[in-house]
Specification:
Pfam families: Glycoamylase (PF10091). InterPro entries: Glycoamylase-like_cons_dom, Glycosyltr_2/OpgH_subfam. One of its GO terms (molecular function) is hexosyltransferase activity. 51% of the residues lie in helices and 11% in strands. The longest helix is centred in the last third of the chain and has 31 residues. Helix 23 packs across helix 25 and helix 29 packs antiparallel against helix 35. It contains 45 helices and 39 strands.
Length: 1271
């Protein structure tokens, strides 16, 4: 069994022992004896053989009776109520609703209303019952502790007898849609890869007026091809991991269209029949070992937009497999009466890439991953031991099929999920989550709700004493009273908004005593919020400061009030679409008998409902009409109420405008850089790239040397590390993104580096921490660094994810390459100044013309620029070194670009139709046949086509090599006792370091993420990392070891940052603290590990991890003041404006050199001569240059590397880890602690542990690893 289940059993035993004369061991022994006795009786219920039956299930009263348990009065009362929970619930609801309605009707009668009381009763009952239901739900959920469903532990493997199939029933209508579905299936697998777990698509074509559509065959062939390719990427012995089951359209007379039979329900029924050899409705089946699927016991069904989190599938299966959850079908009652044939996980909201829209944020719960909340209350599960199925969960194939056999008439059921849960009995598994995104568009949400209302009213059949079945006959309704109440409650809820609107009109216009009815509406709308606020304030955790607790309670209340305001603003529209959906459904059910299967997918709804003001006023026309009507009726019948009705009318008239504003999709936050700042940053990026173009050369075996030091004399450090190599490889692609390299040159440099890596010695897939770049020999001590290896693996996989997209991008983008040329040209003009040679203005003129040239004329402009650039080389020799260097760099760029253009587009001419965008490798490899080209042009195109095919092969080869090179073994670096990664492994001593990384705010994040994504360490290792909270500028922040920018921002250069997540807040707070520290000391800000003004015996700059007090745990952080410009460059991804201003200040202080910004400025007084304010550390470190280059591309090019990282399927499967929420209330880290140094670590007292055990690493040279010995 799972630990949580065993722990729950233990807690029950502890409680029983406290209330009886026996101790815990005796209670446990008694339970075991009861289970043994039951097991000896072959006729007894199999569930009685399990000890849990007596501890948490129906056998509990029997156990308490035998143990003579003496419970308190309140507990006994609760147990008594639990004996008839539905009676207690409905009795309370009915009693309070009746009393409230009676009082309201009495008051109306006392004011002279008699003939209208009957008219008021039904809307009043609907509104009041919803109000009472909200109050009862609020009180119940806050007064009861949710009980988890028991489950087994399948974390080490799923037994063969519980083989499970994960399916997505869906429609396919385009190749892009197929790609998304294939990607979703791959991501599900990568996060839940286990033996005996398979994944499948159940597909239909979109509805069509004819059986076959022109594109159907090609689309299905493409889907089959993609599924086979997916299986090819993940080969295995035995059956495939992935399958495709496709059905043909069938004619539906009632719908008057060709469609998939019974839509989603039909696909699942067809699958169940196929799994049990009862028929085959699938015309196409893809996947090897189909017969093995006939042994599938459970099916996990998901929607196409549902996120199945990592390591969650086996938890669902383990819960279904637990003996107490096994479904018991009663043939007489024709339904499951005990256990569950369906388990529904709890649903949560995922954070979209650019954050939630305003509407979604207002209507949904807080999005993201919440590791601090393990369970949530649910009225039905907590009170009645039975949840509601919403179509995403796991079911038992045999019992599910048997319980639903023959129950549903054809073309009647649209929302089948709730009905299936009623027949097959659904349970809520609230400690397992699935994620989806809440609609950001109000109109899309309305379309979804309308579909739900229609589906609920189409289940009217099951509220009758006798129900119509599949064969048309009627039988006694087999549903339980609870199930019927669920169906009725949905219908009642759909009438609440129309009823409230009617009461509002009556109370403000017709009924006497307007103030009384206004008070009634205020109570209905506001009392639940006020009661929740009161409960929140009273229930303060003992260690939370009162003001913080009060602020949290007020924030929750304000959110509720905002939802009430939104409900009031949309009330007329909500009433209209509810009544419309009900009327349409009743017409179709009772009169036309047609179109009951009408359904529009969520994606199709979003595409059809554009967010424009006209669309919203067109859709919500009832709102302004209701506002005008309210004013008119008030003026005619109750003029004194105009001052009350005017705000309502104004709100309703403005509601479409408000909802349109709230429904705008969130976009990537645009930085507010002006042209001068952008130019400054692009110049910096061009200079930074020049470091790699200069030093990553043949002499260095195409590896980046660790650093280049200008004083006391120029020296290149001929050594490199995995982090340097990974950043250098990403720099090649980044230079292509900026337009500094052609595609051919970027691929060439990448391939040369990979060729070198193939020749280097590895250890379990890892590179050693240091190599000589000339001999390629590892440097002593031979050491594996967790951080360095993780950086390299992450960067290799990011690069591999970026290469396939290059095949479909323009092989040469004029806008991109001209921007890159412009940077070099501006730098040359800047250094040459006013005394520039006459060719330079002419080159500039041709450059300006090229910006507006047609692609066919661009080659002439490029050639002209190259000619003028050639004429600049000799004059540049008479000027300073920088002028000469940039003249040469510009000329090299033009030469490469002209040669590349001639290779790819030499066949272009004015006679060729304009192509926007420029052709891609895919287009060139397979050009269309209808181009009208001359023989010479066709010859050039054929050559370009052959070259494109070579490049495509090269791209694929590089992708495979990068992924293979990233296959590193992290298991031997993982400590299973603490769930931490060690700092490293000394290969010479064959010993893992005793120091561990145990803080989330550290550079280990990327390594940990990669190791989890590649299924080498469990997900719990991420949550084991400590989160030490502090407060900076009244905002929570996480502390790191040294408080350096490197620890906070280095992983964020490639990892996605989800708005309002803990990691984003952590980085923002760190940058704010860095800025504040710089102001306190009166110097530019930006502190991180870097070189400083100290030398070794060979006159090499020394290196140290510097940081900021208040952010770092390490002592003495305020003793040094070394400002590293690369720290500010990295901060561009967090606060672009402040970082750019700081970089300008650093440049004025002389911090910029020929390869961008220098390593550091040392302001530490003890290292300065008298009168010196600071000294510049005139060196460039490869990994700092690489991080700077990535940060500049992040800001200037909209984070292309982050997008590539996020597109890698294994990283997608782990993305929820990056969506961790900021906790509502944090317990701040206390500095009262004892430090005890030991081998570079400190031990924390147990009372201060935030993670599960206690080492924090001490940062060393570069990547927290020993410096190499250089001989």
């Amino acid at each position: 069994m799972h630990f949580d289940t065993r722990d729950h059993y233990r807690h029950v035993i502890e409680m029983l022992a406290r209330h009886c004369s026996r101790n815990e061991v005796q209670v446990a022994q008694h339970v075991l004896n009861m289970a043994r006795v039951a097991a000896e009786d072959p006729s007894s219920d199999p569930r009685r053989n399990h000890v849990g039956y007596y501890l948490i299930d129906d056998g509990r009263p029997e156990l308490e009776q035998q143990l003579e348990v003496r419970l308190g009065r309140i507990t006994r009362l609760r147990h008594a109520l639990n004996q008839a929970p539905l009676l207690s619930w409905l009795g309370s609801l009915s009693l309070i609703t009746t009393a409230c309605c009676a009082e309201l009707l009495r008051h109306a009668y006392s004011t002279g209303i008699s003939w209208g009381l009957a008219l008021l009763f039904f809307p009043m009952a609907a509104v009041v019952s919803q109000f009472v239901l909200n109050l009862l739900s609020e009180v119940t959920t806050r007064s009861r502790t949710p009980q988890p469903l028991p489950r087994l532990d399948f974390s080490c493997g799923i037994p063969a007898e519980f083989r499970t199939l994960v399916v997505i029933p869906t429609l396919i209508g385009s190749k892009s849609g197929v790609d998304k579905l294939i990607n979703a299936l791959e991501v599900y697998y990568l996060g839940n890869a286990m033996k005996h777990l398979h994944f499948a698509l159940l597909t239909d074509f979109n509805d069509a007026p004819q059986k076959q559509h022109a594109d159907d065959a090609n689309l299905l062939a493409y889907a089959c091809q993609q599924m086979e390719a997916l299986n090819g990427r993940y080969p295995c012995e035995g059956p495939s991991h992935f399958f495709l089951f496709h059905r043909d359209r069938e004619w539906n007379e009632k719908q008057g269209i060709w469609m998939g039979l019974e839509r989603k329900r039909g696909k699942l029924n067809a699958l169940n029949d196929w799994l049990r050899n009862r028929g085959n409705a699938f015309c196409t089946q893809v996947g090897a070992g189909l017969e093995v699927l006939k042994n599938v016991k459970y099916v996990i069904t998901l929607d196409s937009d549902t996120v199945l989190p990592r390591e969650s599938a086996h938890q669902l299966i383990a819960a279904m497999a637990h003996p107490l959850n096994q479904p018991q079908y009663d043939a007489r009652q024709q339904r499951v009466v005990e256990g569950y044939a369906i388990l529904q996980p709890r649903m949560a909201e995922e954070i979209p890439t650019y954050g939630q829209g305003r509407y979604a944020a207002l209507c949904s719960s807080t999005p993201g991953n919440d590791p601090y909340t393990l369970m949530a209350s649910d009225i039905y599960q907590d009170l009645f031991g039975e949840g509601s199925f919403i179509g995403k969960g796991i079911y038992d194939v045999d019992v599910f099929s048997h319980s639903l056999k023959g129950t549903c008439p054809p073309n009647l059921v649209l929302s089948h999920d709730l009905l299936e849960g009623c027949y097959a009995r659904s349970g809520l598994l609230s400690d397992v989550l699935l994620y989806e995104q809440y609609p950001s568009n109000y109109l899309v949400d309305v379309a979804r709700r309308t579909r739900w209302i229609r589906g609920d009213w189409q289940l009217l059949n099951w509220l009758l004493p006798r129900v119509k079945t599949e064969d048309g006959t009627r039988t006694a309704n087999p549903l339980s009273t609870l199930s019927r109440w669920k169906l009725f409650d949905n219908l009642r809820r759909s009438l609440t908004s129309p009823s409230l609107l009617l009461l509002l009109f009556c109370g403000l216009v017709w009924l006497p005593n307007t103030r009384y009815w206004l008070a009634f509406f205020a109570i209905i709308l506001l009392l639940p919020t006020l009661l929740a606020l009161a409960q929140d304030v009273v229930r303060k955790p003992p260690r939370r400061p009162f003001l913080q607790h009060l602020q949290l309670a007020m924030n929750g209340a304000l959110h509720r009030l905002a939802q009430v305001g939104l409900r009031l603003a949309t009330l007329p529209h909500e009433a209209l679409y509810s009544l419309k959906a009900i009327a349409i459904t009743l017409w179709r059910l009772l009169i036309s008998k047609r179109n009951l299967q009408e359904w529009t997918s969520y994606a199709q709804s979003g595409a059809r409902r554009q967010v424009t003001l006209a669309n919203f006023y067109r859709a919500m026309w009832i709102n302004p009409l209701a506002g005008v009507a309210l004013l008119l009726f008030s003026y005619l019948h109750n003029p004194m109420a105009l001052f009350i009705t005017l705000p309502f009318a104004t709100l309703w008239c403005l509601a479409p405008f408000l909802l349109c504003y709230l429904s705008h999709e969130p976009q990537r936050s645009k930085n507010a850089l002006d042209d001068e700042q952008r130019r400054f940053l692009r110049h910096t990026s061009r200079q930074t790239w020049d470091f790699f173009s200069t030093f990553v050369n043949q002499q260095e075996n195409w590896l980046p040397p660790d650093n280049y030091q200008e004083i006391p004399e120029p020296v290149v450090a001929h050594r490199t590390s995995p982090t340097n190599i990974g950043l250098s490889l990403l720099a090649n692609l980044t230079a292509y993104d900026f337009g500094y390299l052609t595609l051919s040159e970027a691929l060439r440099r990448t391939e040369l580096t990979l060729n070198t890596l193939d020749r280097m010695e590895h250890y379990r897939g890892h590179l050693y921490n240091w190599y000589d770049t000339r001999t390629l020999e590892p440097l002593n001590p031979r050491y594996i660094s967790s951080v360095d290896s993780g950086n390299l693996a992450g960067h290799l996989l990011t690069l591999s994810a970026g290469l396939p997209a290059l095949a479909r991008q323009p092989v040469i983008s004029p806008q991109l390459v001209l921007a890159g040329l412009g940077d070099s040209l501006q730098l040359l003009e800047q250094h040459w100044g006013e005394a520039a040679h006459k060719n330079l203005p002419k080159l500039r003129n041709h450059f300006e013309q090229a910006l507006n040239s047609h692609p066919t004329a661009l080659q002439a402009e490029l050639n002209a620029m190259r000619n003028y650039s050639n004429g600049l080389q000799e004059p540049a020799l008479n000027h300073d070194e920088e002028t000469k260097r940039w003249a040469g760099a510009l000329h090299q760029q033009l030469n490469e670009l002209c040669a590349e253009w001639a290779l790819w587009f030499g066949w272009l001419s004015d006679s060729v139709p304009e192509m926007e965008p420029a052709p891609s490798l895919h287009w060139l490899a397979n050009p269309p046949a209808q181009l009208m080209l001359s023989a010479e042009q066709q010859s050039l195109l054929d050559a370009a086509s052959a070259l494109a095919q070579e490049r495509l092969t090269q791209l694929y080869s590089l992708q495979q090599r990068l992924e293979k090179m990233a296959q590193m073994d992290f298991n031997f670096l993982y400590d299973e006792a603490t769930h931490f990664l060690a700092v490293g492994f000394n290969c010479d001593q064959n010993r893992m370091d005793s120091s561990k990384y145990d803080l989330l705010a550290s550079e280990i994040r990327l390594t940990n993420y990669v190791a989890i994504a590649t299924n080498q360490v469990p997900q719990r290792s991420w949550f084991a990392l400590g989160r030490l909270f502090t407060v900076i500028e009244n905002e929570p922040a996480l502390m790191s070891w040294s408080g350096s920018m490197f620890e906070y921002l280095m992983p964020q250069l490639v990892m996605p940052a989800y708005p309002d997540s803990l990691l984003v807040q952590m980085c923002r707070a760190a940058v704010e603290r860095q800025i504040a520290w710089g102001k306190e000391r009166g110097v530019p800000w930006g502190i991180s590990e870097s070189g400083y003004f100290g030398f070794d015996a060979d006159q090499n700059y020394q290196y140290h991890a510097f940081g900021v007090p208040g952010l770092g745990l390490r002592r003495g952080l305020g003793d040094d003041m070394v400002v590293a410009p690369y720290a500010t460059v990295m901060a561009l991804i967090v606060d672009p404006d402040a970082a750019c201003s700081n970089l300008v200040a650093l440049e004025k202080n002389g911090a910029k050199g020929r390869y961008g910004f220098y390593e550091a400025l040392d302001y530490t007084t003890v290292r300065l001569s008298r009168g010196q304010l600071y000294v510049i550390i005139r060196s460039y470190m490869a990994h700092h240059q690489g991080m700077s280059f990535l940060a500049l591309s992040h800001l200037l090019l909209d984070a292309p590397m982050v997008a590539r990282f996020a597109n890698y399927p294994a990283f997608q499967s782990t993305r929820l880890l990056l969506q961790e929420r900021v906790p509502d209330a944090v317990e701040l880290y206390s500095t009262r602690r004892h430090f005890e140094t030991h081998e570079g670590t400190i031990t924390r007292p147990a009372s201060l542990h935030v993670s599960s055990a206690g080492w924090i690493r001490r940062s060393r040279k570069c990547s927290c690893c020993p410096m190499p010995t250089i001989t």
